């Protein structure tokens, strides 16, 4: 995305939405939100992103899902900064599904959250929205006081006239402001005068999340609602042959048992009754078309493919000649399937009627889900109403181009003809086994060094495509290459004279999806572990070796140097400890991490991670630190323990006893250093993750002399 | 047969099968949704509540075992979020997605009730059964230490 693109889009949207909303409010009440606003005494809605009440309360409309990354706080901060709002009066409300107003500017006409884009795509838009509202409030005061608007100023929550000393709270001006024309262009604040952006602003969602009041999909209760659980095929590709619901229906509280495209749903008055009903259900599965391969068979197939040329994603210099020079190193890296394993298992609430389908969900992909549900129900997209609730984690799982679990919930509501609202819940085992995993990959790399310098690098990546078969395929799969499989390799910043990256897409009936930091989950490991191997072959210090190759990548160089300096790179450590480093760019942010490790009982123990991040203007430094900590924890969990394996087309793991996740005692100390920047903000939800696994692996090599080429490590 | 117990200081009686996990009685029967479902087999701690002051995993605790006892959920820890741990949690900016935090706070409250000034190892030991996929562990630890300093 470029700034000019987002700015143009904003002006177009805001001109239409701003005037439209103000006008529509007086004529028809601009829909439900407007009616609510009126009832709550909030007559001033100068654009789609803010309403201000006569009591001075400021409601920011968040177009992005809050799934833990602090988006609600960040979005409100940007708008409040330009509005010059009194932060104590700011609250946040999730936006409805309406791509004409709330599209993600990095995704074109689509509304949704992902790719660490919430701040990046909203920064200009919400600054304009806040500044526009402020300009209207100033214009209202100017009219009231009969002075020129240009002579007035604001302080948090009020317009002031420095000449006369007059002061009017925003709340007292909103009724007049609502009648004034929305200006086409407004001046933005000089970033040097930011008081919220870059400052210490507490998360808006924290109080509700320490009292149990935060509302998740799992918590939705509707009158007459039934809870549904689904018996799904034990193997990918199997289908229902027949089922006997006699015993299930005998369970107290079970109301119905229905077949749906993905299995058999048991509906009951309570969650416990539904799961008991499912346990009593007998289903015979048709496995004639079911997957038969397991992980060893897949690995053998992937390895064979890695021995053959793939589609060329990037070619620089003469790799064949380069690999005949100096010392040659070869390595094969394998990465398992990974489940997202958000703390809140997937779930969705659906209320279906003849002319409406209303959904409550940790909604991450409004436009895609709205279109898919419309197609499944025969309703118009605007008849699909999506209520965006807090998500108990997602890490990519709730944004699915296949709308899988949303459509499953809708299919249950359809199967009972909308007789009752349905809350479909997945158990932990359902969530672990249903798939939409980070794909399994094999990387094979051959590189050479001569005279202490990197000469050539030949890289093959083999695995399933995330984008194939989705609406995103036309944009993301080109010439047989899924961009998400090669990101982080094909665009490497390392100035290696001869470089070739190839990719082979495998067809496997296992559902796959992006998983926090997408392709970078494996490409960063392969790149950063192998560059370390080359540094060793070249008999060079890993930081120095990288530094030379990054001479023309100033942001990478800056974080690399900062992380190394803050971690005391090269300084002595206690016996049995070692450091490793990695640097990687993802979602336009660059992060370097130094891991300090030891071995405890032969197992890796990560004591500390020193992190340096360049994410443009730091909107909320503490939230950035949180996201680096979070990415490190999530990445370390996968690096140490994360692994989904298959046996004859069935997932082996089920609950947290078999799909092990990082616990408190495993969590390293994390120190975060933010590179000062005046550039537009980039993402933080994902970029903290990719460097941690290779940094740990590189540190372990310093201890053991053995390279780690297979994840998980422990 | 009705099972009687106290929930957040109020007497209640529920007519459910005795083996029903306390979690589903709290959530579905009594409508208190602050206590979360995460795993259903005492692996993640999201469902942690107090029974007579002890932290238990309500997903694997039959309601019959709570008969005539005092059950406390996150809603009963304080009326308004004023418990020292809740305040420390906000001060340390611990929550991210927030889903596991009720269970984390209830586990920490049981720890501090017995061990008012826990060591780091004692905190790690007591909190070992509470998963957080957002990785808020360091801030949770800091919040517990903050509350301990203030004499929670």
Regarding CATH, which class of the largest domain in chain A? Alpha Beta
The CATH class label of the largest domain in chain B is: Alpha Beta
CATH architecture label of the largest domain in chain A: 2-Layer Sandwich
Enumerate how many helices of chain B there are, as a single number. 6
Biggest sheet strand line-up of chain B: 2-1-5-3-4
Give the name of the CATH architecture of the largest domain in chain B.
Roll
Largest sheet of chain B, in brief, is: 5 strands, mixed
Any idea what the CATH superfamily of the largest domain in chain B is called? Beta-grasp domain
- Our estimate of the beta-strand percent of chain A is 15-25%
| Greatest interface by residues involved | A-B, 62 and 57 residues
Give unreliable regions of chain B as ranges: none
CATH topology term of the largest domain in chain B: Ubiquitin-like (UB roll)
Domain count of chain A: the total is: 3
Main sheet strand line-up of chain A:
10-11-8-18-15-16-17
**Through-space gap between termini of chain B:** 39 Å
Unreliable residue runs of chain A = 1-39
**In what range is the share of β-strand residues of chain B?**
15-25%
**Which class do the helix and strand fractions of chain A yield?**
alpha+beta
Give the overall shape of chain A, derived from the CA principal axes: globular
Helix content class of chain A: 25-40%
């Amino acid at each position: 995305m470029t700034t000019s693109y987002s700015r143009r889009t904003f002006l177009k949207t805001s001109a239409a939405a701003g005037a439209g909303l103000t006008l529509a409010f007086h004529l028809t009440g601009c829909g439900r939100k407007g009616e609510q606003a009126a009832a709550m005494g909030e007559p001033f809605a100068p654009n789609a992103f803010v309403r201000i009440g006569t009591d001075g309360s400021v409601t920011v409309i968040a177009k992005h899902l809050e799934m833990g990354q602090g988006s609600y706080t960040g979005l409100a901060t940007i708008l409040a900064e330009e509005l010059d709002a009194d932060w104590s009066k700011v609250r946040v409300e999730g936006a409805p599904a309406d791509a004409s107003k709330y599209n993600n500017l990095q995704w074109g006409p689509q509304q949704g959250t992902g790719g660490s884009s919430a701040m990046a795509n909203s920064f200009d838009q919400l600054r304009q929205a806040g500044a526009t509202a402020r300009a209207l409030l100033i214009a209202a005061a100017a009219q009231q006081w009969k002075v020129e608007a240009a002579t007035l100023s604001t302080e948090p929550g009020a317009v002031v006239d420095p000449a006369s000393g007059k002061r009017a709270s925003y709340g007292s001006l909103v009724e007049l402001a609502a009648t004034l024309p929305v200006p086409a262009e407004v001046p933005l604040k000089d970033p040097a005068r930011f008081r919220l952006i870059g400052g210490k602003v507490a998360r808006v969602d924290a109080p509700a999340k320490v009292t149990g009041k935060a509302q998740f999909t799992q918590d939705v209760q509707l009158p007459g609602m039934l809870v549904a659980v689904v018996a799904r095929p034990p193997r990918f590709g199997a289908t229902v042959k027949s089922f006997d619901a006699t015993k299930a229906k005998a369970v107290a509280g079970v109301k119905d048992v229905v077949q749906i495209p993905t299995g058999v749903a048991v509906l009951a008055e309570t969650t416990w009754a539904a799961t008991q009903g499912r346990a009593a259900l007998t289903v015979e599965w048709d496995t004639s078309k079911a997957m038969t391969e397991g992980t060893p068979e897949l690995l053998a197939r992937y390895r064979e493919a890695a021995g053959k040329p793939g589609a060329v994603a990037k070619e620089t210099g003469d790799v064949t000649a380069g690999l005949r020079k100096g010392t040659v190193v070869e390595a094969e890296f394998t990465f398992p399937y990974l489940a997202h394993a958000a703390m809140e298992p997937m779930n969705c609430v659906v209320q279906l009627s003849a002319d409406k389908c209303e959904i409550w969900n940790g909604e991450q992909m409004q436009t895609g889900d709205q279109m898919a549900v419309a197609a499944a129900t025969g309703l118009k997209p605007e008849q699909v109403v999506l209520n965006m609730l807090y998500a108990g984690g997602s890490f990519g799982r709730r944004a699915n181009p296949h709308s899988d679990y949303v459509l499953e919930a809708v299919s249950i509501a359809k199967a009972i003809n909308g007789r009752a609202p349905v809350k479909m819940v997945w158990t932990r085992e359902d969530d672990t086994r249903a798939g939409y995993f980070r794909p399994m990959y094999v990387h094979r790399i051959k590189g050479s060094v001569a005279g202490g310098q990197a000469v050539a690098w030949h890289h093959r990546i083999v695995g399933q495509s995330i984008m194939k078969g989705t609406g995103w395929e036309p944009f993301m799969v080109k010439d047989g290459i899924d961009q998400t499989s090669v990101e982080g390799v094909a665009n490497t910043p390392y100035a290696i004279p001869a470089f070739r990256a190839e990719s082979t897409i495998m067809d496997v009936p296992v559902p796959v999806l992006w998983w926090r930091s997408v392709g970078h989950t494996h490409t960063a490991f392969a790149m950063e572990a192998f560059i370390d191997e080359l540094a060793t072959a070249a008999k060079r210090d890993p930081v120095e070796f990288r530094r030379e190759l990054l001479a023309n990548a100033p942001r990478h160089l800056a974080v690399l140097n900062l992380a190394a300096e803050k971690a005391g790179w090269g300084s002595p450590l206690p016996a049995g400890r070692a450091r490793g480093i990695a640097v990687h760019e993802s979602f336009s942010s660059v992060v370097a991490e130094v891991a300090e490790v030891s071995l405890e009982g032969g197992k890796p123990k990560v004591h500390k991670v020193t992190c340096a991040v360049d994410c443009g203007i730091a909107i909320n430094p503490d939230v950035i630190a949180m996201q680096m900590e979070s990415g490190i924890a999530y990445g370390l969990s996968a690096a140490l323990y994360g692994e989904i394996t298959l046996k004859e087309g069935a997932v082996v793991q089920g609950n947290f006893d078999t799909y092990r996740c990082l616990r408190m005692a495993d969590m390293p100390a994390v120190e975060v250093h933010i590179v000062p920047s005046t550039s537009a903000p980039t993402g933080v939800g994902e970029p903290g993750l990719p460097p941690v696994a290779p940094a740990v692996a590189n540190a372990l090599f310093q201890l053991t002399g053995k390279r780690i080429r297979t994840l998980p490590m422990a | 047969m009705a099972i009687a117990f106290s929930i957040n200081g109020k007497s209640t009686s529920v007519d459910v099968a005795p083996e029903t996990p306390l979690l589903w009685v709290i959530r579905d029967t009594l409508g208190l949704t602050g206590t979360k479902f995460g795993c259903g087999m005492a692996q993640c701690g999201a469902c942690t509540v107090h029974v007579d002051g002890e932290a238990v995993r309500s997903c694997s605790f039959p309601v019959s075992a709570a008969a005539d006892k005092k059950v406390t959920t996150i809603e009963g820890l304080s009326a308004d979020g004023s418990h020292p741990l809740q305040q420390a949690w906000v001060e340390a900016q611990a929550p991210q997605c927030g889903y596991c935090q009720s269970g984390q706070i209830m586990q920490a409250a049981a720890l501090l009730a017995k061990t008012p000034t826990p060591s780091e190892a004692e905190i790690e030991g007591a909190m070992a059964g509470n998963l957080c996929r957002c990785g808020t562990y360091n801030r949770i630890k800091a919040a517990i230490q903050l509350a301990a300093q203030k004499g929670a």
